[in-house]
Amino acid sequence: MSHQLFSQSLISPAVQAQLPEGYLMRPLEITDYHKGFYDCLAGLTVVGKVSQESFRQTFESMLRCQNVYHVVVIEELKASRIVATGTLIVEQKFLRGCGKAGHIEDIVVHDSQRGKKFGIRLIDQLRYLGNAVGCYKLLLTCSETNEPFYEKSGFERKDLHMAQYLNQQQQQPQTITVEPPTTAAAPTTTTTTMATETNTNTTKQTPSEITATTTATVDSVSMIKSCDLPIKALGASIGSMLVK
Ligand SMILES: CC(C)(COP(=O)(O)OP(=O)(O)OC[C@H]1O[C@@H](n2cnc3c(N)ncnc32)[C@H](O)[C@@H]1OP(=O)(O)O)[C@@H](O)C(=O)NCCC(=O)NCCS
């Protein structure tokens, strides 16, 4: 079984070239559990308690869903730690000639590394990936606070996002505990409270796809089923966006 979630060939050399020296953009690897992946994710939302075994099982489940889950990370090589991550989930459709839609999810830059254009580079990479795998649109959902960030990446508001909490326990802020490697020291612990979900588009849309622009205050969890893996997102004030 591959140690990388998807092929390295789907990483854009042009985007990599725009990163500062010492930072590598690459697919998520099974060893990233011990490289601060969860510490980074905790800057976005509740991550819960995740054992190394749970991480491995989830990684392998995603790997089996070939060409669906594309979790990208930026690693600070000197420190061997993940400083940013973002995901493109490819949804196969029956409509649009059995086309594919790309869902951008879980964009987060470690709070110590923000303002260095890592966020923009992640979006650039996911757009490259969406084009490479044949998505006709990219979609994401974000809070109003982050709307200017996505507008800078070429997204615009579209439609109304709705959600419903299905598991109340998932909403509670929790302390995450990452198991240390057998040779390492103390576990990493982090807390956080917020969450998002996303949507975008790369080529032309029909008029019905580019009309409504509104936001909704949502206090719920939306669930999307793909392969055997549920995708959950917690929301505050949320709007749906797509690429202009
Ligand atoms: C949002 C986030 C990913 C941005 O990452 P970042 O690496 O700090 O952003 P960048 O350095 O790439 O910023 C690119 C541009 O967007 C702007 N920008 C970034 N976040 C912004 C925000 N929340 N509001 C307004 N502008 C913002 C930057 O000022 C910069 O503008 P410039 O090109 O004019 O200089 C990061 O702040 C983060 O991880 N936040 C917490 C998690 C989160 O909310 N994720 C989004 C989920 S939808």
Automatic annotation (TrEMBL):
**Residue limits of the N-acetyltransferase domain?**
23-179
Identify which top EC class this enzyme belongs to.
transferase
Q: Which GO terms describe its cellular component?
A: endoplasmic reticulum membrane
Q: Where is this region: Disordered?
A: 171-209
| Pfam family for this entry, one | Acetyltransf_1
Q: Note whether Endoplasmic reticulum occurs among the keywords.
A: yes
Give the Enzyme Commission number.
2.3.1.4
Report the pathway entry. Nucleotide-sugar biosynthesis; UDP-N-acetyl-alpha-D-glucosamine biosynthesis; N-acetyl-alpha-D-glucosamine 1-phosphate from alpha-D-glucosamine 6-phosphate (route I): step 1/2
The subunit field of the Swiss-Prot or TrEMBL record says: Homodimer.
Protein name in UniProt: Glucosamine 6-phosphate N-acetyltransferase
Q: Which gene encodes it?
A: GNA1_2
